[in-house]
């Protein structure tokens, strides 16, 4: 495993015999397929909260799309695979959210998009057809990988999943900070939530799991010997 200093803080690891990059922006890149893998982007979550009368900031859809644009350009991605929870709820089909996504898609017409349906997608419904997203149910097999939303799904292949929104409490003396993290073992990797308004679930990795935290600038592995109860 090695850091890639010329690749903006990404960390290269091997999974199921394939080289992948863990990206500081809470995504994974599979170079052989030129594929970005994104978990739990939750488009329209803020709009869904505002529809319920909760005063939360606007602009998260634009922030998510801008973050996607940067990663696509930086890594030369030709396709994006979403590991479920693309839309947060039916209210995510708000006019402003859909308009922003339509403008973005018009600027990225050749980018292949695939969505493996997650639990929120079942309630929100599939994205509009004009987004030209290929839809799949979990698990979706490609190469050695089984792409899923739920990490506990029984499937043949090495699982890539989301759903958990994992964050880890990194401690230094009396101070601590919650950081998004990737968790990987011999059977699966769980990605952090990509969305700008998704929250996180504090996790305690098992002894046989590798833990990688991201500060937003770099991905770093936390050795098992230095880990404590992250809650």
Automatic annotation (TrEMBL):
One of its GO terms (molecular function) is hydrolase activity. Gene3D superfamilies: 3.60.21.10. It comes from the Bacteria. Residues 35-131 form the Calcineurin-like phosphoesterase domain. SUPFAM superfamilies: Metallo-dependent phosphatases. InterPro entries: Calcineurin-like_PHP, Metallo-depent_PP-like, PdeM-like, Pesterase_MJ0037-like. This is Calcineurin-like phosphoesterase. It comes from Duganella phyllosphaerae.
């Amino acid at each position: 495993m090695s850091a890639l200093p010329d690749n903006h803080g990404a960390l290269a690891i091997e999974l199921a015999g394939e080289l992948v990059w863990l990206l500081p922006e809470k995504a994974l890149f599979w170079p052989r397929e030129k594929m970005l893998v994104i978990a739990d982007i939750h488009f329209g979550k803020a709009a869904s909260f505002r529809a319920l009368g909760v005063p939360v900031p606007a602009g998260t859809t634009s922030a998510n799309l801008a973050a996607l644009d940067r990663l696509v350009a930086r890594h030369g991605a030709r396709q994006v695979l979403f590991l479920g929870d693309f839309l947060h709820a039916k209210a995510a089909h708000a006019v402003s959210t859909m308009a922003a996504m339509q403008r973005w898609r018009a600027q990225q017409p050749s980018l292949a998009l695939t969505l493996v349906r997650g639990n929120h997608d079942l309630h929100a419904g599939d994205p509009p057809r004009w987004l030209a997203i290929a839809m799949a149910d979990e698990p979706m097999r490609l190469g050695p990988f089984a792409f899923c939303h739920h990490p506990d799904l029984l499937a043949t292949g090495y699982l890539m999943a989301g759903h958990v929104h994992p964050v880890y409490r990194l401690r230094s003396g009396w101070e601590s900070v919650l950081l998004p993290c990737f968790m990987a073992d011999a059977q699966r990797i769980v990605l952090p939530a990509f969305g700008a308004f998704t929250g996180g679930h504090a996790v305690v990795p098992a002894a046989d799991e590798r833990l990688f935290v991201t500060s937003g600038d770099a991905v770093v592995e936390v050795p098992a010997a230095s880990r404590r109860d992250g809650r």
